[in-house]
Structure formats: structure tokens, C-alpha cells
Specification:
Layout (H helix, E strand, L loop, with lengths): L1 E6 L2 H12 L4 E6 L3 E6 L10 E6 L4 E7 L6 E6 H9 L3 H5 L10 E13 L2 E12 L4 E12 L2 H4 L19 H11 L7 E4 L5 E6 L4 E6 L14
Antiparallel strand pairs: 1-5, 1-7, 2-3, 2-6, 3-4, 6-9, 7-8, 8-9, 10-11, 11-12
Helix pairs in contact: 1-2
Length: 231
């Protein structure tokens, strides 16, 4: 079993894992020859949220090599927090996108290599960062993330969650404006209602014993998406 790749787009990889880490503390990553699946299933489900995402290998990685007896697929379970920490430490630009409390690295990574390894009989996803320090010296940093490599029988049990075909497709307004509204409504209620229709109307609302607030956007697009898009 062999796996090695250069993380060409560290920031995109970081942001994908950052989004998953906010939902679950553990995830499953399945690497194949052309795709990377990031999965949060029932076993790691902490709040009723499941994740099944597919990322094309060439959108993030270069020099990608994978070899295994399971049709050249390697599946592992790992901590999203540990993976996020490894990616954060590799890029100043990724770190600046995280919380302000994070400490920026004292070097800029020029290359980030990710590979499967074993250290002290423990399987790890090893990140080797090659870069230059702020004083101009060459730097090599290794960050290991503990993983559990899943057996083919366990992988076969993974199933993509079944989702009903949506009744409405609608394009959201600018996300920064939507986030501002949600942040203002959040202290007022634990439950937020979203309503949309095929006339381009989107409504965000809360309703409690003490307050009722609604915000509405009109003229949002309703794209036509065939059912094959979800397959």
C-alpha cells in the first residue's frame, strides 16, 4: 500500500477540511485514482449531520501516486482537528483565513508533500513541508496525523446518504449579506426558518414568544437542474 501526493492548492484543501471540522470531530477520507471522498457517516455522527463530498484529485494535488490491493483505493478514518492543524501549519495564507487567535508560522511553505507512512507501528498521514524561514534559511517540517486504515469490508459498508430530489432550486444572495442577517438573528432564537419558492423569493425568519423577524430577498435565480445532477 503506497500513497504520495503534492498538495498544490493548500488553501482550498484547508477550507474544505475547515468546513467539515465545524460539523464533525472525525471523518473518513477515501483516496482513489481520480477522486477524494470526504465522508462523515452515522458512526461519527454527533449532531444529525452527514457529509458525503467528492473532490477531483487534480483540483488539489499534483504528482499524485496511489497503489493498493483494493483497486488502488485507500480509505482512512482520522481527526478533522488534527488534519486541519497540519494544513494550517503549512501555509501562512491558510492560517490567515483561520481564527485570529491562530499563530502564523515563522516560515512560508514552498512545497507540501502528503504521504502514507507508519511510525512506531502506527499508521499516519505524514505532511512534509519544505520552505524558507523569514531569515532566508531552508526549512523542512514534518507533521504526522494519526489514522486508522479501514479494511475493504468496512469500506464496502459506506453508503452515500439518500436525499430526496429538491422541490426548489434557488441561487443564494451574496453570502456575506446572508451571513450578516443570520448572525443578527442567531441571538434571538435557536431555530432559523428558511423558505424559498420557484418565483425567486428567499425568506429567512425566526419566531419566538418575544420576537418575530423576517428578511426577504426577491429576484433570486431558479436554475434548472436535472435529476441526473444528483447521481
Amino acid at each position: 500500500m503506497r500513497f504520495r501526493a503534492t498538495v498544490e492548492n493548500v488553501v482550498i484543501f484547508y477550507r474544505v477540511i475547515q468546513a467539515v471540522e465545524k460539523l464533525q470531530r472525525k471523518c473518513i477520507i477515501k483516496f482513489s485514482e481520480n477522486e477524494m471522498h470526504i465522508i462523515c457517516n452515522d458512526d461519527a455522527n454527533e449532531g444529525g449531520i452527514q457529509v458525503w463530498s467528492v473532490v477531483k484529485v487534480d483540483s488539489i494535488f499534483t504528482n499524485y501516486r496511489i497503489q493498493s490491493n483494493a483497486n488502488n483505493q485507500i480509505t482512512m478514518a482520522l481527526s478533522t482537528e488534527a488534519l486541519l492543524s497540519a494544513l494550517r501549519s503549512s501555509s501562512a495564507s491558510a492560517s490567515s483565513a483561520s481564527a485570529a487567535a491562530c499563530i502564523l508560522p515563522t516560515y512560508d511553505a514552498e512545497e507540501l508533500v502528503m504521504k502514507l507512512a507508519k511510525k512506531n507501528d502506527q499508521a499516519v498521514l505524514s505532511f512534509e513541508m519544505f520552505g524558507v524561514s523569514r531569515t532566508g534559511r531552508k526549512v523542512r517540517v514534518t507533521h504526522d496525523v494519526r489514522i486508522d486504515v479501514m479494511r475493504p469490508a468496512e469500506v464496502d459498508k459506506l453508503r452515500e446518504p439518500l436525499c430526496p430530489e429538491p422541490d426548489v432550486h434557488i441561487l443564494l444572495p451574496p453570502l456575506q449579506k446572508l451571513r450578516t442577517i443570520v448572525d443578527r438573528l442567531r441571538p434571538l432564537s435557536d431555530v432559523l426558518a428558511l423558505r424559498a419558492n420557484n418565483s425567486g423569493k428567499l425568506q429567512v425568519a425566526i419566531s419566538t414568544d418575544s420576537a418575530k423577524v423576517e428578511t426577504q430577498w426577491v429576484g433570486c435565480g431558479n436554475p434548472s437542474i436535472s435529476s441526473s445532477f444528483w447521481l
